[in-house]
Amino acid sequence: MTETASGPARSSRKGEKGAKADKATKGLRMERIHTTPGIHPYDEVVWERRDVVMTNWRDGSINFEQRGVEFPDFWSVNAVNIVTSKYFRGAVGSPQRENSLKQLIDRVVKTYRKAGEENGYFASPADAEIFEQELTYALLHQVFSFNSPVWFNVGTAQPQQVSACFILSVDDSMESILDWYKEEGMIFKGGSGAGLNLSRIRSSKELLSSGGNASGPVSFMRGADASAGTIKSGGATRRAAKMVVLDVDHPDIEAFVETKVKEEEKIRALRDAGFDMDLGGDDITSVQYQNANNSVRVNDEFMKAYEQGAKFGLRARMTGEVIEEVDAKALFRKMAEAAWACADPGIQYDDTINHWHTSPESGRITASNPCSEYMHLDNSSCNLASLNLMKFLRDDTASDGASGAGGNMSFDAERFAKVVELVITAMDISICFADFPTEKIGETTRAFRQLGIGYANLGALLMATGHAYDSDGGRALAGAITSLMTGTSYRRSAELAAVVGPYEGYARNADAHKRVMRQHADANTAAKRMDDLDTPVWAAATEAWQDVLRLGEQNGFRNAQASVLAPTGTIGLMMDCDTTGVEPDLALVKFKKLVGGGSMQIVNNTVPKALKRLGYQPEQVEAVVAHIAEHGNVIDAPGLKPEHYEVFDCAMGERAISPMGHVRMMAAAQPFLSGAISKTVNMPESATVEEIEEIYYEGWKLGLKALAIYRDNCKVGQPLSAKKKEEAKTEAPAEVEKVVEYRPVRKRLPKGRPGITTSFTVGGAEGYMTANSYPDDGLGEVFLKMSKQGSTLAGMMDAFSIAVSVGLQYGVPLETYVSKFTNMRFEPAGLTDDPDVRMAQSIVDYIFRRLALDFLPFETRSALGIHSAEERQRHLDTGSYEPAEDELDVEGLAQSAPRQAGPAKAATTAPAAKAQEPAAAPSPKQAHNSTELLEIQQGLNADAPLCFSCGTKMRRAGSCYVCEGCGSTSGCS
User: Could you tell me which residues come within 8 angstroms of residue 41 by beta carbon, excluding any fewer than 6 positions away?
Assistant: First the structure.
């Protein structure tokens, strides 16, 4: 809050207790949000010592170990592990190594306070003290987090780089191109990412001054790609993060669009020839363009030509004249076909981006950072921080005396705004002492002071408040929060301008900056209000934008940019967020590590909150949670109304959110952001080129700044067939129809083969099963005979046996059948006469449990929750199903690594084991995080890379990936 010498400004904000900019003293007057005078935030929490030991599950090796670290008792195992291994400074094992969260927070916060005092941000030492304690409280209680470079560098002896996002530039000269290689390499070396636009480089269709043809930007991309791959393999644990942009009117645009498609075909050919082409494989370096995200920058002229089916001119770089005309629809189609085939290129909407540009007099916005959320001037950077939205969800039931169903929740808009003011102040202070990888970036960043405040846990917040992610109510709440965040940020920026001056480039861009502020305010006014949750937030945002217009006119602004929505990968895990950035929840059941070792699968804590908000009674909530724990979804949950199913839709699973639902959520937030949104729109494998075309077109119509899609399994995996069935609408575009179709070969059993015949009873129904196997290679044939049953059931069992037998002979793994058919429920069901399978939910359930026990190695079926009576007894006696080493040969259990299990549903625990609570059950043996748990539960392929550090499957965070186990990311932090 700003207060001048003549009296308080912004008097309309009744009861406001935020910070005040006092012109008389030239400094901010800070007021408390969470803390109490005389009590340090550290003294209000319970601290405990923990041991952090992180292993690579593939070989059991220890990746990291530090014992006796100090953290609050409410921090999760994951958060403790990630902060200890990623952010504590000092050599491991040395006395200088940080060993407490207190040391880490103090290192950062005290540096910020000192810089703030030295640069005149605070009115008095008492205000600086309040700033330090409030910042400490917010970090300690996971209310927000700075981006990773802050935790890496601030307060250390090394250069204090605070930015994670960089934009470079390159001109049409060899000197500039070589500078690009060097600057990009230095940024990669520091663990950050960079983006740039190559459109200034002459095309291969233009002449050099010497008379020869230019190489073109695609050619120079090869060198930069090789550099990025080399720096990654030289020591970093993740691939270099980079973005390459080319304007749609560049004469080499078609070659740019097709670069990755051709390389993907090459990868498949080499993979089929026996080379290791997996991500991180030994031979993947033989292909090009794999270290960058590619995006085409389209303008309104091109999009209108696409709408009209008109021609579009490609222009010479040096003269601007049209040297070739192309069909806009055909070019747009090629972009969609390429994205269908390999997920690149993404799309950026140039005119929309520059329509919201606050500093156009200083240059156009031509590119973005690798994750596409930071968009500003060339040779600039942005430091990020993200707020945990769930920390501002308030349960008003107790305060208003209500009880039972229909919990009264609200979003604490007033406290949220105060925390935004605190964080923006700290972020701006950091630019005063920050180091930068190049002098050009340092000059631009200090002159424009770009900030990127954002949030995480939106998906969890929407579900907890009873909003479907893809709903008008969900979008209204997301838009309101985003508007309040950005409005409050610019209000604080105007207050800071009164204290320490506007940004250096403001005077030249004042009219444009104020115009963009009016655009934000107008969008806020026009936004639709939906319910009792979003309406008060919109009201607070409206007041904030009114203050922005008034104070900006008086003082100018301290920052050219204020907000973005970043991936929040590692810091999201640090804050114990259920969802990252603007993403929905991954699934309803999560993987949770336990203090002292072990893990559990638990139903999301947001589910009970959502059910309470929707009006369900406690006993109904309990029943629904139990159903989710067993099935992983809400379909047919007892007592749950079908119209409420959508509230629990997730990114993956039985009820996955539609691709357009993701696009609409981005459109709800975009008008209230300075920058853009890091998000990839996931599409099913069955998605068509036409659907991708529609997504890219609708992104432009809805006012997005950038958009990327990912079609499941479009990267190297199963070979693509030459033709797809028309009825499935998955026709491959012409560019990928050259791929050879591979067919499995049937391996028949010999005339004489070993077999096992088993008699069984399930719920009173008797039957016989004969299972014949190859002499040296597992099960190959099953015969089923039901005693005293009608001809229809007997005939169906015969047909079923033949189908399974043929599948086995064509190479379908037995574990795939087991994962699909165990837990299938139908009559007859109940008690059996088999001591190893005491209860069966159907005859099919029994058959495949018996086959698993007879033919699958111990490790594979144990991961599916299938154990013999002897193994279950061992578990009760020793706490482990595993046999002793000297028992392995006796029991005939596989000592080698198990075959890779196919997608499997989470099996129920064996009947002899103790029943678990509905909301928590032991996680399957081979699940190491929520992504792998989801794959086992729902038979899905998450289609994500494995973590280079610990070997577990990563999960998507914005347009990057993050490892839940160790916090590593596949892109910029």
Answer: 34, 35, 133, 136, 137, 140, 141
Selected catalytic residue, list 78, 147, 153, 369: 369
Lowest mean pLDDT among 499-508, 696-705, 849-858: 849-858
Q: Rounded to the nearest 5 degrees, what angle is found at the Cα of 767, between the Cα atoms of 765 and 771? A: 145
Half-sphere exposure (Cβ direction) of 529: Cα atoms closer than 13 Å:
14
pLDDT digits (tens, 9 = 90+) for 655-698: 899 999 999 999 999 999 999 999 989 898 899 999 999 999 99
Q: Which residue has the tokens 């002492």?
A: 433
Mean pLDDT of the region 366-375:
96
Q: What is the DSSP string of 134-179?
A: HHHHHHHTTSEEE-HHHHHHTTSSS--B---EEE----SSHHHHHH
Residues paired with 295 in a beta bridge: 245, 346
Determine the Cα–Cα distance for residues 972 and 582; give it in Å rounded to an integer. Answer: 17
* pLDDT at res. 459: 96
What's the rounded Cα separation, in Å, for the pair 721 and 918?
43
Q: Which residues contact 597 (CB under 8 A, 6 or more apart)?
A: none
Distance CA 239, CA 279 (A): 10
pLDDT higher than threshold 70 for residue 401? no
Among residues 6, 82, 364, the alpha carbon closest in space to that of 963 is found at: 82
Q: Please measure the distance between the N-terminal and C-terminal CA atoms of the chain and give it in whole angstroms.
A: 32
Out of 88-92, 211-215, 375-379, pick the least confident.
Answer: 211-215
pLDDT digits (tens, 9 = 90+) for 738-750: 444 456 778 888 8
Catalytic site includes residue 646? no
How far apart are the C-alpha atoms of 773 and 29, rounded to whole Å? 80
Question: What mean pLDDT comes out for the span 853-869?
Answer: 82
Strands (E), 265-337: 293-298, 311-315, 322-327
Neighbours of 889 (CB within 10 A): 10
Rounded to an integer, what distance in angstroms lies between the CA atom of residue 945 and that of residue 960? 10
Cβ burial, residue 775 (10 Å; 0-12/13-18/19+): exposed
Candidates 117, 265, 373, 583; catalytic one: 373
The residue type of 590 is K
Is residue 342 annotated as part of the catalytic site, yes or no? no
User: Which residue is catalytic, options 134, 165, 258, 371?
Assistant: 371
Place of tokens 């999960």: 955
Give residue 762's domain range. 757-880+902-943
Domain assignment of residue 90, yes or no: yes
- Is 827 annotated in the active site? no
pLDDT in the model for residue 957: 75
User: Facing residues of 49 across strands?
Assistant: 70
Q: Residues 889-915: pLDDT tens digits?
A: 333 333 333 323 333 333 333 333 333
Least confident of 210-224, 317-331, 641-655, 680-694: 210-224
In whole angstroms, what is the distance from residue 385 CA to residue 19 CA? 19
pLDDT at 370: 92
Indicate the pTM of the whole model. Answer: 0.77
User: Rounded to an integer, what is the distance from CA 104 to the centroid of its chain?
Assistant: 26
Domain boundary residue among 118, 153, 188?
153
Tell me how far the alpha carbon of residue 924 is from its chain's centroid. 23
pLDDT tens column, 9-26: 333 333 333 455 554 458
In a domain, 692, yes or no: no
Q: Is 873 within the bounds of a domain?
A: yes
**Alpha helix stretches (DSSP H) within 682-738:** 689-701
Q: How many domains, in total, are found in the chain?
A: 2
Q: Which of 138, 153, 168 is the last residue of a domain?
A: 153
Domain assignment present for 413:
no
Q: What pLDDT is recorded for position 387?
A: 98
Beta 193-197 vs 242-247: how paired, if at all? parallel
Where helices occur in 174-252 by DSSP H, the ranges are 174-189, 217-233
> Which residues sit opposite 72 in a β-bridge?
47
